[in-house]
Design a protein that fits this description.
Methyltransferase, Cobalt-precorrin-4 Transmethylase, Domain 2; 2 domains; about 20% strand; about 180 residues; 3 helices; alpha+beta; two-stranded antiparallel sheet; four-stranded mixed sheet
Length: about 180
């Protein structure tokens, strides 16, 4: 038995086939999380727990899970880990938080994890996610442009310092030459 309950960052699935691209993007659009494959959700006395059933953890199942993640937009970079032993093996699917939200499934579904369920992203949240992404990109570009301006200003400052030094040297040379000429 797994004591922890499903939540914003944990989802139980009985088999690899039960994992959908929507499950993956829902976690990625939240804060990331883990899908534990081979676990059945149970309730007892109003409490939730996971019953370990085990599942096939072969190369074919892993390939299908990776394919589901790569079919999302943008493709999700999940990590698969086999845990357990004997017939009670499970696949731990770690889904990182998406760096550029919102993400969607191949069918165009935009989902996010809320509590222990996946829900559609409503227009207000969609706007918030897009504005956050755009402001992050703007800030990044602004910082990079600031670095370029500072670099250009330093080059200009160095150029002007060199020209000023050349002018001072020339003025000193001219003053020295004028003194020599006046003293003769």
């Amino acid at each position: 038995m797994i004591r922890g309950e499903e939540g914003t960052d944990v989802d139980y699935k009985e088999s690899p086939q039960a994992v959908t691209p929507e499950d993956i993007v829902a976690l990625a659009n939240a804060r990331g999380g883990t899908i534990i494959v081979g676990v059945k959700e149970q309730r007892k006395d109003g409490r939730q727990y996971g019953e370990i059933l085990g599942c096939s953890t072969g190369e074919e199942e892993r390939r299908k899970l990776l394919h589901k993640a790569s079919s999302c937009f943008p493709p999700m970079n999940i990590t698969l880990t086999e845990e357990g032993s004997g017939t009670r093996k499970v696949i731990r699917v770690d889904v990182p938080e998406a760096p550029a939200k919102p993400c969607c499934s191949p069918s165009g579904a935009y989902k996010i994890r809320r509590g222990s369920i996946n829900v559609a992203i409503d227009p207000q949240l969609m706007t918030t996610l897009i504005l956050q992404r755009e402001s992050d990109q703007f800030l990044s570009r602004f910082k990079e442009a600031g670095k370029e301006v500072i670099s250009a200003l330093k080059k200009t400052e160095n150029y002007l310092d060199a020209r000023i030094q050349e002018a001072q040297d020339a003025a000193e040379e001219a003053a020295s030459a004028a003194e020599d000429a006046a003293s003769r």
